[in-house]
Amino acid sequence: MSATGPAVIEPVIIELWIPGHPRTKGSHQPQQVMAGGRRTGRVRLVETPESQAWMKVLVDAIKKRLAAVPLAAYPALGEIGCRETYWVPFADSVDHRAGDVEKHVRQTHDAMNYAGVWKDDAQCTLLIADKRSAFGTLHGPGVMLQAWIRRIF
């Protein structure tokens, strides 16, 4: 017991390594808007195929991990804490091709929404995120994802 009260054990709701090339949310490319087989002259922005493929990898891996946890209650309720480390396939983690860490977080949190980890990513009230070069590592590129319940409401 500490001077401020009993120690609090924060239950982990998910912890997993997802190998692959982390892609950011917000990597858009222009696409012509069509109506009746004709171009309308308008353009919309859509996620790149690489970003869409990474989203599928994330969602599938998270769903598989959640399914392996017996009697777990998902989506989790309350405040959630997250720690995310993105290992990018570039010699320098600040390489512009590696993307912004906050865009990696957006992609991962959307995947956690789709996979049913929580009801809404607004539940994440503590976030520790970093981006590192995967060069010289044994594991290669990917993301280490950890989330835990901070407070139930």
Helix content: 10-25%
Which term fits the overall shape?
A: globular
Sheet with the most strands: spatial strand order? 1-6-4-5
Terminal Cα span: 24 Å
For the CA atoms, what is the radius of gyration?
18 Å
Number of helices: 2
Order of helices and strands: EEEHEHEE
User: How much strand content do the residues show?
Assistant: 35-45%
Q: Which spans of ≥5 residues are poorly predicted at pLDDT below 50?
A: none
Write a structural description.
The protein starts with 11 loop residues before the first strand and ends with a strand. The model has no long low-confidence stretch (mean pLDDT 87). The strands form 2 sheets. The protein has a 4-stranded mixed β-sheet, covered by helices on one side. The chain has helices spanning 49-67, 101-115, and strands spanning 12-19, 28-35, 38-47, 79-88, 124-133, 142-151. The longest helix has 19 residues, at 49-67. The protein has 2 helices and 6 strands. The chain is of the alpha+beta class.
